[in-house]
Design a protein that fits this description.
By secondary structure, the chain is α+β, with helices and mostly antiparallel strands. It has two helices and five strands; from the N terminus they run ααβββββ.
Length: 156
């Protein structure tokens, strides 16, 4: 059976009303997002600072260990210790930058301060990095001291 004259009735194309997020909720979500981004940037920076400080400490420690190793060779070979000799030999295991004059630099690009006191039988070498601020005597400095004392030989 065929119906004549009947046409399908078009269904109105009505979309359901869009649910609007309340303004206060959008602002709250935005504030949370901004705070999360701020805190993550802060913690990334804090981690970076700690990483740079650890690198600086390892640089000073490696240089101190190489100086101490040199002092062991001096003792074994019964030579006179010479700081310039050891600084020329330091390879730093890739931790140091060095300019054309041989000056060693820390991870912040500042010269490492290497001071020698005493002569002959007792020699003290202090290796210091001035840290992030580049000023000596502040809390971010890192220093290591190596003492070499020549042991008297027993001629028995």
């Amino acid at each position: 059976m065929q119906a004549t004259g009947l046409r399908p009735v078009p269904i109105l194309d009505v979309k359901p009303p869009r649910r609007m997020t309340p303004k206060w909720l959008r602002r709250l979500l935005f504030a949370v997002l901004v705070n999360v981004l701020f805190l993550s940037a802060f913690f990334c920076y804090a981690f970076y600072v700690q990483l740079e400080r650890a690198k600086m400490a390892s640089q000073v420690s490696v240089l101190s260990a190489e100086i101490d190793h040199y002092f062991g060779e001096v003792e074994r070979d019964n030579k006179q210790p010479d700081l310039n000799t050891i600084l020329a030999r330091v390879d730093g295991r890739g931790l140091f930058a060095r300019d054309s004059s041989g000056q060693l630099f820390d991870s912040y690009g500042r010269p490492l301060l290497i001071q020698q006191t005493g002569t002959g039988g007792a020699l003290r070498v202090t290796v210091t990095s001035t840290g992030r601020d580049g000023k000596l005597g502040t809390g971010d400095d890192f220093s290591r001291e190596i003492t070499f004392e020549r042991q008297p030989k027993n001629n028995e």
